[in-house]
């Protein structure tokens, strides 16, 4: 007979959990393992709300296990370290992103690409090496193996930097991998949401000429005046799109809704790349002819490895890059999820866990 969440481990913990596919979150008592020799215990201060959290609590991807404590944009203070730990010290700030474990022995792990390990252990809604559930950052404390912890520079505001641990690395990693990070490049960002607005900021820090591509004219002023984009294309405006054909060195597509790819591929110069980081729930149609006759590439990317996540955080600190956020108390989280469903947030909710999570 399996133990209750409160009795699986010696240390008590508290958070908010979804109990079923209704997705409604409520107070939840559980437990976490004792800090081991290679572990770090973190008191959670802030946790961003990612769209993945919404998918998972409602079982929209069909793999949810309840009770579920979401949250994989976690920042906090180190309260305990194992005797073998050298990355951080007690009292320092640290972060945890989308995963907390991997096999450590496959080709991906050997190449520091833990995010592509087939035995990757997600920060929540997964099973740890000992078979017990992983619980995320909508909670007071967590214990994480040192390798999967990110050091946080002192000058980064923790609340606004928390979303970088998912949204930030999700766009930074493909920009680096596909070479879409060179000064002077003409770079398109499709979608101006949690991922897109951060992509604009990184692209500008890389010195690129940035065009935001959106279905919504209402986002033009925000994109140019606030985020610093150089230009704006309305993807539904055929004349605008026609005039921009063959002008871009690269495009990152952050949209998770069903949408046509051909107009985006046509925007690329020959021999250039369209990179997908959104995850539509229906297959997209991929036209082959423009790829053949323009030698263009359509690629993808999922999250980013630990070393690269640290590089991204350090880069963000150097260039003062943070997410645009709305800080909320824990008891507002269900309302936040309803608003997120409607796209009613600029651009990321972040839970003030330390000051508002109370038993």
UniProtKB/TrEMBL annotation:
GO terms for molecular function: oxidoreductase activity, acting on the CH-OH group of donors, NAD or NADP as acceptor; zinc ion binding. Coiled coil: none annotated. Signal peptide: none annotated. Pfam families: ADH_N, ADH_zinc_N. InterPro entries: ADH-like_C, ADH-like_N, ADH_Zn_CS, CAD-like, ER, GroES-like_sf, NAD(P)-bd_dom_sf. GO terms for biological process: lignin biosynthetic process. It comes from the Eukaryota. Residues 23-351 form the Enoyl reductase (ER) domain. Its cofactor is Zn(2+). Keywords: Metal-binding, Oxidoreductase, Zinc. Belongs to the zinc-containing alcohol dehydrogenase family. This is Enoyl reductase (ER) domain-containing protein. It comes from Kingdonia uniflora. The lineage of its organism: Eukaryota, Viridiplantae, Streptophyta, Embryophyta, Tracheophyta.
């Amino acid at each position: 007979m399996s133990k209750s969440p409160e009795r699986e481990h010696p240390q008590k913990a508290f958070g908010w959990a979804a109990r079923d596919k209704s997705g409604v979150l409520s107070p939840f008592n559980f437990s976490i393992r004792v800090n081991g020799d290679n572990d770090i215990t973190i008191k959670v201060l802030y946790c961003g709300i990612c769209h993945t959290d919404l998918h998972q609590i409602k079982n929209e991807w069909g793999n949810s296990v309840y009770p579920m404590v979401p949250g994989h944009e976690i920042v906090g203070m180190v309260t305990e370290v194992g005797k073998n730990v050298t990355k951080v010290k007690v009292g320092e700030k640290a972060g945890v992103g989308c995963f907390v474990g991997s096999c450590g022995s496959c080709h991906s792990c050997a190449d520091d690409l833990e995010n592509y390990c087939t035995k990757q252990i997600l920060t929540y809604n997964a099973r740890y090496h000992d078979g017990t559930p992983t619980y995320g950052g909508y909670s007071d404390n967590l214990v994480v193996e040192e390798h999967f912890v990110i050091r946080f520079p002192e000058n980064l505001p923790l609340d606004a930097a928390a979303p970088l641990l998912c949204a930030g690395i999700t766009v930074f990693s493909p920009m680096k991998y596909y070479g879409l990070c060179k000064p002077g490049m003409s770079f398109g960002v499709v979608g101006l949401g949690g991922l897109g607005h951060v992509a604009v900021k990184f692209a500008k820090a890389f010195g690129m000429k940035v065009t935001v591509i959106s279905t919504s004219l209402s986002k033009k002023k925000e994109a140019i005046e606030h985020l610093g984009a150089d230009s704006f294309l309305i993807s539904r405006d055929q004349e605008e799109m026609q005039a921009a054909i063959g002008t871009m060195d690269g495009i990152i597509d952050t949209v998770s809704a069903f949408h046509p790819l051909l107009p985006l591929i046509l925007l690329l110069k020959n021999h250039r790349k369209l990179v997908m980081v959104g995850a539509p729930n229906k297959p997209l149609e991929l036209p082959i002819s423009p790829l053949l006759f323009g030698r263009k590439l359509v690629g993808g990317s999922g999250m980013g490895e630990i070393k690269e996540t640290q590089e991204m955080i350090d880069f963000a600190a150097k260039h003062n890059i943070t997410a645009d956020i709305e800080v909320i108390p824990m008891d507002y989280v269900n309302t936040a999820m309803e608003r997120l469903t409607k796209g009613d947030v600029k651009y990321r909710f972040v839970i003030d866990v330390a000051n508002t999570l109370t038993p």
